[in-house]
Design goal:
Number of helices: 5
Oligomer: single chain
Strand content: 25-35%
Distance between the termini: 63 Å
Order of helices and strands: HEHEEHEEHHEEEE
Number of strands: 9
Length: 196
């Protein structure tokens, strides 16, 4: 299973330059709630969501879900009991933060976290099933969206991963369906349904 995940992650990363990102307006609150529900089923702690209701980003929903799932999964592996999924509207961009109260990461490791195969604790990461590629994939996805990712951490207090994405307006409203037509008219063409 671990070898399968490693191969899958390597393929994902090797194709990152040719990914087809299909950007659409994504409501950030929906994205965060979706990820919270996914992980809450198997997590005894609390996952809390804070985001403006009308905040949208331009992105590929599946890839953004992958980013969030990776960051939340890392927080749980770090022994977090609380995870906060927060989003902030900065006008032309949005910032999303995944904060936890886990074990934290020593400062000397922070500059290397997004490198391929980099692990903070090699033995423990192997036990947890990590490939050392997850954060490299996160970075590649966000850069493909024109975004950035960064990390802050304090040992014994927790870690916060943040990323920025271009902001977007909401999606356009759905087009109204064509008006209902009645039975064929006298010349064989449909006749408009009479008003009620």
């Amino acid at each position: 299973e671990r070898m399968g995940k490693l191969v899958s992650d390597l393929l994902d990363l090797s194709q990152s330059g040719t990914w087809r990102i299909r950007p659409v307006p994504v409501r950030v609150l929906d994205l965060l709630e979706e990820v919270r529900e996914e992980f809450a089923k198997s997590f005894d702690g609390a996952i809390l969501v804070e985001a403006p209701e009308d905040l949208y980003v331009l992105g590929d929903p599946d890839r953004l879900h992958q980013v969030m799932a990776n960051l939340v999964s890392n927080a749980l592996k770090a022994g977090a009991r609380h995870v906060w999924l927060r989003a902030f509207d900065l006008g032309d961009k949005a910032v999303v933060r995944v904060e936890d109260d886990g074990e934290g990461i020593p400062e000397e490791h922070l500059p290397h976290l997004f490198e391929r195969f980099y692990r903070v604790d090699k033995a423990r990461d192997r036990e947890r099933g990590g490939s050392g590629l997850g954060l490299a994939i996160v970075k590649a996805i966000l850069e493909a969206h024109g975004g950035e990712v960064w990390v802050e951490s304090q040992v014994g207090k927790g870690t916060a991963f943040s990323f920025s994405l271009p902001a977007s307006g909401p999606p356009p409203p759905p087009r109204w369906a064509a008006p209902a037509l009645g039975p064929p008219g006298p010349r064989g063409g449909p006749s408009p349904r009479p008003p009620r």
